[in-house]
Specification:
The protein has 268 residues and is an alpha/beta fold. It folds into 2 domains: 144 residues, 3-Layer(aba) Sandwich (Rossmann fold); 111 residues, Rossmann fold (3-Layer(aba) Sandwich). Helices cover 43% and strands 16% of the residues. The strands form 2 sheets. The protein has a 6-stranded parallel β-sheet, sandwiched between helices. The two termini are 30 Å apart. The structure holds D-glutamic acid. The site of D-glutamic acid has 18 residues, from helix 3.
Length: 268
């Protein structure tokens, strides 16, 4: 595997750009090849079988493009398709999901006794966070709730305003969340509403999202595999499986700057 090859990164759509952004900030010498499967958005309401099918096809495309590492920048795909993608990669390159780095960060904080999780229906239904947290911290109480409206709400531009405050409040006043010490934002879109979520809880409640922990984990894996690039080899490429202008306009929200999206005919 050649260290100058790009890192393959994919999501159901453009929310995974929050992870891509964290990667470019920590590892500016790396080149990204991003795929957003906008043709099948949202993954959060699909069956596990459907998401596995989509994730495998995208991973196959990225492997054919000789990516040196794969990042599943989607909580739903990480929850239900990580093992399938990892077996496709068959130990030839690092495969990173957005769940394990956060689980490790939460488990490492021994002051936490009860944590909450919010994410898509498919992520919450999979109970993958509960399972992984229990392996590392059997003493930790974990409570979760699907917050199905939030990803679409953010994509439509509703965050940091009265509408988003009302919807977020409605979800977070779930009685089980009343005495949590930390909240895991188990969806790629939620870093954009991190401040609103923090404001709902007392300041001592810790909020975890996957962006920084995933970038750090990727850096660690690249070092382990001796795959760190020395310099950018070209421009990042961003593909979507169904192109619309509104997707392109929304990229700025998630990536911090406008991104040029290229159509990718993966499903024809
Ligand atoms: N990217 C998805 C996730 O992180 C959210 C959007 C969707 O449901 O496709 O779970």
């Amino acid at each position: 595997m050649n260290a100058e090859r790009p890192i393959g990164i994919f999501d159901s759509g453009i929310g995974g750009l929050t992870v891509a952004r964290a990667v470019t900030e920590l590892l500016p010498q790396e080149t990204l090849l991003y795929v957003g499967d906008t043709a099948h958005l949202p993954y959060g309401d699909k069956s596990a079988e459907a998401v596995q099918h989509y994730a495998l096809r995208i991973a196959n495309f990225l492997l054919n493009r000789q990516c040196k590492a794969l990042v599943i920048a989607c909580n739903t795909a990480s929850a239900v398709a990580f093992e399938a993608v990892a077996s496709l990669a068959a130990g030839r390159l690092p495969v990173i999901n957005v769940i394990d780095p956060v689980v490790q960060a939460v488990a490492a904080d021994s002051s936490l006794h009860k944590v909450g999780i919010i994410g898509t229906r498919a992520t919450i239904r999979s109970q993958v966070y509960e399972r992984k947290l229990r392996q590392l911290r059997p003493d930790l109480e974990v409570v979760s709730q699907a917050t199905a409206l939030l990803a679409g709400m953010i994509e439509a531009g509703f965050y940091n305003n009265q509408v988003s405050h009302a919807i977020i409040k409605n979800y977070l006043r779930y009685p089980d969340f009343a005495d949590i010490q930390a909240m895991i934002l188990a969806c790629t879109h939620y870093p954009l509403i991190r401040t609103e979520i923090q404001a709902f809880f007392p300041p001592e409640v810790r909020i975890f999202d996957s962006t920084a922990p995933v970038a750090l984990q990727l850096a660690h894996e690249l070092d382990t595999w001796s795959l760190r690039a020395t310099a950018r080899t070209g421009a990042h490429q961003f593909f979507v499986t169904d192109f619309t202008d509104s997707f392109e306009q929304t990229t700025r929200l998630f990536f911090g700057e406008a991104v040029h999206l290229e159509p990718l005919a993966l499903w024809e």
